[in-house]
Write a structure and sequence with these properties.
The complex is a heterodimer of chains A (213) and B (71). Chain A is built from 6 helices and no strands. Chain A has helices spanning 15-18, 35-65, 79-104, 108-135, 143-175, 187-212. Chain B has a domain at 23-55. The chains are: A mainly alpha (213), B mainly alpha (71). At the A-B interface, helix 2, helix 3 and helix 6 of A face helix 1 and helix 2 of B.
């Protein structure tokens, strides 16, 4: 069979090539981006729109409704603690980036260290956030401020929680010997890393808007 | 622009710097000044995003494996 060395035509083929090909044909890829990365980017675009609607509500309540005091008297937001929490979350972006840089160079120990540090920093952020909720003194029913405050920070907290689940899976896989330096072999860290950066970027905006402005 | 974690990390740094400028300006002056500066940054980001997208599509159409390409 002299035609056996002829490459498979795209999206199908003659019976000669099929004789050597087992399983379904390879999926057509029209994009330069692998489907996992494209998927997380499309997901993030939808998330930006979700956060955008919450920010629109926030600014509507603050600027258009314009209550007498914001936050309502006598409550105050713990800006210093939230600022420290911001530093913790921003640091976690550096550690996940370190983990990715490590695995790109084939350094698996560095990747594991970066993932574990990121996970610990993310969990610390979430605990500080919950502790803040406990001690704030107002609830989601305390005027429109309470509602939008808990909605916006809670929405972000939920994203941190999801990010921690993704990081847990990546960390477990890393300790079980998965991932290597080839780009397609560490997508399991790359995709949660992109998501984690998104969560970090959103927090910077939430913090500046809710706690500072 | 590459579509990977390193490219997104660069945006963490950019947004971090922008956020720090808004926070700094708010603390030094008044919340309204910080909010207006934040609005300027958001508009600048939208303009950059629009121009980048337009450029990307223009380049994409010239590629053989781009949208409407032969590959």
């Amino acid at each position: 069979m002299e035609s056996a060395s002829v490459p498979l035509p795209h999206g199908g083929g003659g019976h000669t090539a099929e004789a050597h090909h087992h399983g379904p044909p390879a999926a057509n890829q029209s994009s330069r981006i692998d489907r996992q990365t494209l998927g997380i980017f499309l997901f993030i675009i939808s998330e930006v729109m979700l956060f955008g609607s919450f920010f629109a509500s926030y600014f509507f309540l603050r600027v258009v409704v314009n209550p007498v005091s914001w936050p309502p008297y006598p409550f105050e937001l713990p800006v210093a603690i939230a600022g420290m929490n911001t530093a913790i979350l921003v640091s976690s972006s550096f550690t996940i980036h370190y983990a990715l840089e490590a695995i790109r160079k084939g350094n698996r120990q560095g990747m594991k260290l970066g993932l574990v540090l990121t996970w610990i920093l993310g969990l610390t952020f979430l605990f500080v956030q919950i502790n803040e909720y406990v001690h704030l003194g107002f609830s989601g029913r305390t005027e429109s401020f309470g509602t939008i405050f808990y909605s916006l920070t809670g929405l972000h907290g939920a994203h941190v929680f999801i990010g921690l689940i993704l990081l847990s899976a990546a960390t477990l896989r890393a300790f079980r010997g998965h991932f290597s330096k080839e780009p397609e072999k560490h997508l399991g860290v790359e995709v949660p890393g992109i998501y984690w950066h998104f969560v970090d970027i959103m927090w910077i905006i939430v913090f500046a808007t809710v706690y500072i402005l | 622009m590459n579509f990977n974690e390193a490219a997104v990390f660069k945006w963490v740094l950019i947004v971090g710097a922008a956020g720090a400028s808004v926070i700094g300006l708010t603390l030094l002056t008044r919340p309204l000044v910080g909010a207006l500066w934040g609005l300027v940054l958001v508009i600048a980001g939208c303009v950059y995003g629009y121009r980048w997208t337009r450029e990307w599509w223009r380049n994409a159409k010239d590629r053989p494996d781009g949208p409407g390409g032969s590959a």
